[in-house]
Specification:
Number of strands: 4
Structural class: alpha+beta
Distance between the termini: 14 Å
Order of helices and strands: EHEEHE
Strand content: 25-35%
Largest sheet: 4 strands, antiparallel
Helix content: 25-40%
Length: 73
């Protein structure tokens, strides 16, 4: 298992819920910790999960909701 961290411009529970639902649909993702205050999302997943797949899913949401998303590691 690996941990990937994203900086996400979440401002409310709706944002964190959306991010959690989006990432939860990706096969191999086992845990998602969305911290609204820190604007960080920590994703625990199998080694086979491509960070770009997760980033692309979040960027699609970010564009629709006018939020910022960055891959930290």
């Amino acid at each position: 298992m690996v941990e990937t961290i994203f900086k996400v411009g979440m401002t409310c529970g709706g944002c964190s819920g959306a991010v959690t639902r989006i990432l939860g649909k990706i096969e191999g993702v086992s845990n998602i910790d969305a911290n609204i205050e820190a604007k960080l999302v920590k994703v625990t997943c199998e080694d086979s999960v491509d960070n770009q797949v997760m980033l692309d899913a979040l960027l699609k949401w970010a564009e629709a909701s006018n939020k910022e998303v960055q891959l930290i590691n």
